[in-house]
Fold this protein.
Amino acid sequence: MKKMNVIQSFLVVLLILFTFPGISQNSVIIHADKPGSKIDKAIYGQFAEHLGHCIYGGIYVGEKSDIPNTKGFRLDVVGALKELKVPLVRWPGGCFADTYHWKDGIGPKADRPSIINVHWGGVTEDNSFGTHEFLDFCELIGADAYVCLNVGSGTVQEAAQWMEYVTSSNDSPMTKLRKQNGREKPWNVKYWAAGNETWGCGGNMRPEYYADLYNQYSSFMRAPGIYKIASGANVEDYKWTDVLMKQSAKMMNGISLHYYTIPGTWENKHSATQFDENEWFTTLQKTLKMEELVSRHSEIMDKYDPSKKVGLLVDEWGNWFDVEPGTNPGFLFQQNTLRDALVAGINLNIFNNHADRVRMSNIAQMINVLQSVILTKDKEMVLTPTYYVFKMYNVHQDATMLPLEIKCSKYTSGSASINAINASASMKEGVVSITLCNLDPVNAQNVSFEIQGQKSAQVTGKIVTADKMNAYNDFGKKEEVSIAEFMGANLNKGKIEATLPAKSVVLIQIR
Ligand code: AHR
């Protein structure tokens, strides 16, 4: 962006004040002089479960499909995910993981048994997408793999053999079997979890019982350089984290946390696209709870692991709404609006800001399920507002987190109020990247920035926004939400100011 002279700057300010009469003045100090931890790229991870049309139809259509594919993987989806720089994919569940027996999904496809997906719609699936397909898919899109082992209905032996099958280069029965099935070299899979939601669909266990079981599994989870993950707490179950850390911290590299934003109740979650400003507010307010959850679970972890060796991994998060009318209730298919873009932006900012403890997150889910980055219908594909936020935010992957001090106005609804601005910042290759969400759907926010410890010569920006709170991208229609150049930031005599439009997610980069 070119530098402006004094008169031009004055005119811009007048224009802003005229255009946005309710504009507020806010300030952000960015501490480039006090760099924090590395933002692990795994924070930008995704979750792909055997659920609805996430795997079958979304990722995999089979080689005989008339949807363009390579080895059965949709070409349009593979292209979009490569473009997104997805660092990591979690598979096969979710609740599905604790019903999954991996040997059903290897070998000639015609010989693989069909199974009933008991958690998700009771549908029969033919196991044509198994271990080889998942790991080949990860290689295709350039992502690391994260495999969740079956603890709920599996055995330690089954889990140990799966790991041997995938990772071993030694002469062994499982290595031999893998080679017979066409894969000579082992795969390099770093992330392995022992079970999913073991407090719920993964076995309804008490934390004390699961901690013992985790230690047993962990003892037999063997492969060079692996990262072992314990099934962690549901929302604010702080006791779960406490017990697991007390009994098992030495046996794990990470522990998970699950939290979904549900604007209504579990029974009536409310529509993904039909909502008013009250519900916009409630959704964002509930999303901000992630800050409290991450802080409080981290505090407990600090007690047992002050040097922060164990990562807090938010391996399921996102909006959970009612399914789209007329779709299978067990398939969790929902549309994705500008509101989802804000929810993604806020959560990712929170994770960036806690990069000292949060080392991974996985949005639920990648395709066609809950807050997806991609939707598909037969041959068509839609990139959601959430996709575009991830794309804009990928500048933070493996960058150094920079602490922020934010002074901002409140966004108020009735007697409740939340901060109008949510942000995080990082530095990579001399470039400072700040991602900001303006939660207020009516008022723009004027922000002045001060970067301590770094000179500013140029400022550029990108934005995700739309005219309506519930704008979304739909099949066969022109995109309503995507990334645009952001012209609302300027640098004048070393001072950076920006006007964030109402209901927007913005990236500002300073060189
Ligand atoms: O993401 C959908 C489901 O939500 C997962 O299978 C489960 O882990 C969670 O309850």
